[in-house]
Write a structure and sequence with these properties.
The protein has 357 residues and is α/β, with parallel strands linked by helices. It has eleven helices and twelve strands. The chain folds into two domains: 197 residues, Isopropylmalate Dehydrogenase, CATH 3.40.718.10; 130 residues, Isopropylmalate Dehydrogenase (3-Layer(aba) Sandwich), CATH 3.40.718. A ten-stranded mixed β-sheet has the order 2-1-3-12-11-4-5-10-8-9, sandwiched between helices. It has a two-stranded antiparallel sheet with strand order 6-7. Strand 6 and strand 7 form a beta hairpin. Bound molecules: adenosine-5'-triphosphate and magnesium ion (MG). The site of adenosine-5'-triphosphate (ATP) has 19 residues, from helix 1. Its EC number is 1.1.1.83, 1.1.1.93, 4.1.1.73.
């Protein structure tokens, strides 16, 4: 029996509610599997802790996570803490030291959920967006001078390294190669951004030589938003820089029906440290404490975590159970136009897993 040590970091707002639901479902999958156990340790890191102590996490927090097999993360962000402070204080403070350089965001229209695009069925919008997760526009480099004066200047420097671009490109080509359509779209803005983005294009062409079975093309990010909306079937695997993929994946989440169903994984492909799995949505304080957060994104996140741990059969069982439940509108939370509550959806998924439904 495999015993996985999972670190849970619920964080802020609805992060606490959806991670609690995710852990209930993880326990149910483990019980049913009979092949593995999941031993969950919860960390109370987040904005409450920051407001009380000045720090989002324990001293050396990322190092405390190293012994774990995987990390389940909720959300970070609070109305009275600037977003850039909480993002850098917790999420990036984990992703960067643990070398989780590949951010993977699958998109699919789950059964029973309607895309805002007309005539889009479950198989027509089946994408994986790969986001460079360690450098680029979010390298944190830049500064401000003459603060508050008319001549104030702020710089925000994007840093692209050959090593950083090449490793994400290899990851994306390999992922595309593993999917049935073997199709990759490399997104840049190399017409207007003449250095880093041109290097992206060059490295894509170099790496492509090692993946002869993959059909690939290049798109400018602005044209890509049009293609995602008007010709979604033409896409499969997508790779883009930190900023561009951040924006495209919110669009993808919206096109898949709700931000409340979209998962993401921060992967350390070499497995030199644990990877981190989280819903793409934030802490959503407008619905916090009401018990109506959609837990589907987190369930899908748990399935990605199981897949990464090597429990493909359990991941598949969980996704099938989730799809059985989303297919029924009585289990839709308000973001999907329904009246179900977080716990209704959670209990329904567990009932399917346990064969009671
Ligand atoms: P953050 O600042 O942490 O990013 P946010 O307040 O910007 O959080 P998001 O979580 O990014 O909010 O989502 C935007 C809106 O989408 C929320 O205000 C919320 O109403 C809705 N939403 C997000 N996640 C969910 C969910 N899991 N279930 C239902 N609605 C959600
Ligand atoms: Mg937000």
């Amino acid at each position: 029996m495999n015993n996985y040590k999972i670190a849970a970091i619920p964080g802020d707002g609805i992060g606490k509610e959806v991670v609690a639901a995710g852990v209930q479902v993880l326990d149910a999958v483990a019980r049913q599997s009979g092949t593995f156990e999941a031993d969950v340790t919860t960390f109370d890191w987040g904005s409450d802790r920051y407001k009380a102590t000045g720090s989002f996490m324990d001293e050396g927090g990322a190092e405390m996570l190293r012994p774990f097999d995987a990390i389940l993360f909720g959300a970070v962000g609070a109305p009275d803490v600037p977003d850039h402070v909480s993002l850098w204080g917790l999420r990036l403070a984990i992703c960067q030291p643990l070398d989780q350089y590949a951010n993977v965001r699958p998109t699919r229209v789950l059964p029973g959920i309607r895309s805002p695009l007309s005539n889009v069925g479950p198989d027509d919008l089946d994408w994986v967006i790969v986001r460079e997760n360690s450098e680029g526009e979010y390298a944190g480099q830049g500064g401000r001078s003459h603060r508050g004066l008319p001549q104030e200047i702020a710089t925000e420097v994007a840093i692209f390294t050959r090593a950083g671009v090449e490793r994400i490109m290899r990851f994306a080509f390999a992922l595309a190669d593993s999917r049935p359509r073997k199709l990759l779209t490399v997104v840049t803005k190399s017409n207007a951004q003449r250095y880093g983005m041109v290097m992206w294009d060059e490295i894509a062409a170099e790496v492509a030589k090692d993946f002869p079975d993959v059909t690939w093309d290049k798109m400018l990010v602005d044209a890509m938003t049009v293609r995602m909306t008007l010709n979604p079937r033409s896409l499969d695997t997508i790779v883009a820089s930190n900023l561009h993929a951040d924006i495209l994946s919110d669009l993808a989440a919206a096109l898949s029906g709700s931000i409340g169903v979209a998962p993401t994984a921060n992967i350390n492909p070499e497995k030199t440290a644990p990877s981190m799995f989280e819903p793409i949505h934030g802490s959503a304080f407008d619905i916090t404490g009401k018990g109506v957060a959609n837990p589907v994104a987190t369930f899908w996140t748990v399935a990605m975590m199981l897949e990464h741990l090597g429990e493909a059969a359990a991941a598949d069982r969980l996704m099938k159970a989730v799809e059985r439940v989303t297919a029924e509108s009585r289990f839709h939370t308000p973001d999907l136009g329904g009246t179900a509550r977080t716990q209704d959806v959670t209990r329904a998924v567990i009932a399917v897993l346990e064969g009671r439904n």
